[in-house]
Design a protein that fits this description.
Blueprint lengths: L2 H14 L6 H27 L3 E2 L5 E2 L3 H43 L3 E3 L1 H6 L15 E7 L4 E7 L2 H8 L6 H8 L4 E7 H4 L4 H12 L10
Antiparallel strand pairs: 1-2, 3-6, 4-5, 4-6
Length: 218
């Protein structure tokens, strides 16, 4: 398999995944790709301009091609890639801080309660025995393992009840039954400032890293 094919394949795969990246990452990748293409084509053009010499053993070579390879291709590509990596790290760190700040704002509007208190007080009912509920998201924080599960529902309180009666995420329920301490946080869609429920849920999942290091595994 040629190196050009491998690089083309890697580029194609990266391009297919761009829709999952942050907007800054997409821009950075495009800029990096353009610079890499310019460097490669300039190197190719300069390489073609080198005179061809023939040795006594009838082997053709171009004087200065090794120096051109390093100075015109390898070193510039390394420099551009390192700059890209630093820029990506900077924007990723900034996005993480922004997510944290947004989550702190959302948390200030949410309500926290333990599963034991939630179930004992039957918080999905009013004092008069009428059902009460709302559309929004809920966060189940395993304090023992510092893991999160984020979910959404048009009936948040009823859905939370299901999770702690064995009708939701099996891992969450198993950890709770084994003695892990949990905190339940709920947030209504109206209070969040968002209009789309799925968008709100995905933002909170990302902020808590609940897919890679939580219960929201695909």
């Amino acid at each position: 398999m040629s190196r050009l094919f491998i690089n083309s394949y890697a580029f194609t795969q990266a391009a297919k995944n761009m829709s999952k990246w942050r907007k800054e990452s997409q821009v950075l990748f495009c800029v990096w790709a353009v610079f890499m293409a310019v460097i490669f084509f300039r190197y190719t053009e300069d390489h073609m301009k080198l005179p061809i010499r023939v040795t006594s053993s009838m082997e053709a070579y171009r004087p200065g091609e090794d120096e051109l390879l390093w100075n015109g291709l390898i070193i510039p590509m390394i420099v551009v890639t390192v700059i890209w990596m630093f820029a990506e790290f900077f924007f990723a760190h900034r996005a993480k801080i922004q997510n944290h700040n947004r989550m702190e704002t959302l948390k200030s509007k949410s309500s926290d309660v333990t599963p034991e208190e939630f179930l004992s007080k039957r918080m999905w009912f009013t004092d008069k025995g009428d059902k009460v509920d709302f559309t929004g998201v809920f966060v189940l924080h395993n304090l023992t393992k510092d893991k999160f599960f984020v979910g959404h529902s048009i009936h948040v309180l009823e859905r939370v009840r299901q999770y702690f009666t064995g009708q939701g995420n099996g891992d969450v329920y198993a950890d709770w039954k084994m003695g892990d301490k949990f905190i339940i946080s709920t947030l209504s869609l109206v209070d969040s400032g968002h209009k789309d429920l799925n968008e709100l849920e995905q933002e909170i999942i990302k902020a808590y890293d609940a897919r890679k290091h939580g219960y929201n595994k695909k």
